[in-house]
Design a protein that fits this description.
By secondary structure, the protein is an alpha/beta fold. Helix content is 30%, strand content 24%. A hairpin with a 7-residue loop joins β8 and β9.
C-alpha cells in the first residue's frame, strides 16, 4: 500500500494544501516527528490516529540512522496494509526528516512512497520577512553547514540554533542580516537584532551583501 509524505507548510494550519488535508483525513494512521507537526495534523484528524515518532537532535550519524530505521519499522506494518501519512513542517523533500525515512523505507518493497509538497520555508520566508529574491543567485543551506565566506550576494540559512555565533560569522563575511523565528506561527518574530531572539530550531537568517536586507 502507500506511505504519503505530507508537507504541512511553515506552521499555520491554513497553509496546508488541500491535497495534504485530504490525505491526512483519509489515512488510517498519521505519523509526526514532533509536537508542532502533531499539533497541526490534529487540526484535521483525531488525536488517536496520530502517533509521534522520536528523532534525536544530534549530529551522530549512527544514532540518526538507527532512529530512521526504527521509525521505518514502526511505519512499515501499517503502510503495508493500508494508507498512512508522515507529516512534516515545510516540504517533505527540503531539509526534512521525511527524506531520511523514505530512504529507510526502501527495504520494504510492499510499500509505495509518494510525496505531497507543502509550502516550504524557501517560499514562505520571503512573504513573512518582506524580502524579494529577484536578482542573482542565492545560497541555501542549513546553518550547521557554515557561512559561505566567498559565496553569492544572497544567503539563506535554515535551522539557526545558535543565533549569536551565526550572526558573528555572517557579519564577518560582510553580510547584512535579517532573522525570522517561527514564521507563520503564533509567536513569529522578524528582526535585525539577533540579541532579541532565543535560540530556536525554527529560525532562518537571510543575509545580503552590499545592501540592506
Amino acid at each position: 500500500m502507500t506511505l504519503y509524505g505530507v508537507g504541512l507548510g511553515p506552521g499555520d494550519p491554513k497553509l496546508v494544501t488541500v491535497r495534504g488535508k485530504e490525505l491526512m483525513e483519509r489515512a488510517e494512521r498519521v505519523y509526526a516527528p514532533g509536537d508542532l507537526a502533531a499539533e497541526i495534523a490534529g487540526e484535521f484528524v483525531p488525536d488517536e490516529r496520530i502517533e509521534q515518532l522520536s528523532f534525536p537532535m544530534t549530529r551522530d550519524e549512527s544514532a540518526l540512522r538507527a532512529a530512521w530505521e526504527e521509525a521505518a519499522e514502526v511505519v512499515a506494518p501499517a503502510a503495508e496494509t493500508g494508507t498512512v501519512a508522515f507529516v512534516t513542517i515545510g516540504d517533505p523533500k527540503i531539509y526534512s526528516t521525511f527524506s531520511h525515512l523514505e530512504r529507510a523505507m526502501k527495504e520494504y518493497q510492499a510499500v509505495d512512497v509518494e510525496t505531497v509538497p507543502g509550502v516550504s520555508v524557501l517560499s514562505a520566508f520571503t512573504a513573512a520577512m518582506d524580502v524579494t529574491i529577484d536578482d542573482g543567485p542565492i545560497d541555501v543551506r542549513e546553518a550547521r553547514a557554515g557561512v559561505p565566506t566567498d559565496g553569492p550576494d544572497q544567503c539563506l540559512l535554515l535551522k539557526v540554533t545558535d543565533v549569536t555565533a551565526t550572526h558573528q560569522k555572517l557579519t564577518a563575511a560582510g553580510y547584512d542580516v535579517i532573522y525570522g523565528r517561527r514564521l507563520f506561527m503564533n509567536d513569529a518574530t522578524v528582526t535585525t537584532e539577533p540579541t532579541s531572539l532565543e535560540d530556536d530550531y525554527f529560525t532562518v537568517a537571510f543575509a545580503t551583501r552590499g545592501r540592506s536586507a
